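Lab notebook page, bench 4
Experiment: in silico fold of construct C2
Operator: M.H.
Input chain length: 218 residues
Purpose: comparison with the prior construct
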Amino acid sequence: MTRSLSLRQTIETEIVDGRLAIGSRLDETELAERFGVSRTPIREALLQLAMTGLVEIKPRRGAIVSAPDPELLVAMFETMAEIEASCGRLAARRLIAADETALKQALAACAAAAADEDPEAYYQENYVFHTVIYRACRNDFLCEQARLLHRRLTPFRRMQLRARHRLGQSLAEHEAIVAAIVAGDEIAASDRLRAHVIVQGDRFSDLVANLRSISDAA
């Protein structure tokens, strides 16, 4: 993990947990002193966060903690859902033994984290689970696009896991996705991944509620 990515995750967690208030200024010099690094990795981390909408870079003011536009979030999740659906369809068609083994291992790790009721651990295993599917699609370009957008949506996918009962629901969806991919059912794999990722109805309401909780905690 690069230093800037590690810093990005730390700052992101503090925003999601409400320790960094919406509207507060993220001073590069202060953050550099706090983390014992130069301003360069801090600047890189803030630019990465600006891509997610959690941070806004303003002229003469620098980086400000912000909340993303809900319409933009919906658009990003819709795009992510279609990309993952394509990965699932191709994975079901092209699955090899090594990827099947990795997929089942990733599912087992998700189940263990869900049993511990640990959203953060589950999110880390969830990332591995989806990464295995990307790799299994055997399309390097599609895999890279999926990784890029997944990283951009990282804080909001983490927030979704805070919703009540979401860990259990997510795990059940993972199990159905694995079953479809292993069975070679391209249509089911595609449909189940799309439904797993997209936010609408109650899932979107939960996400917006969690975004508001950040502001309330501040």
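Observations: The mean pLDDT is 87. The longest helix spans residues 70-94.
Next step: discuss at group meeting.
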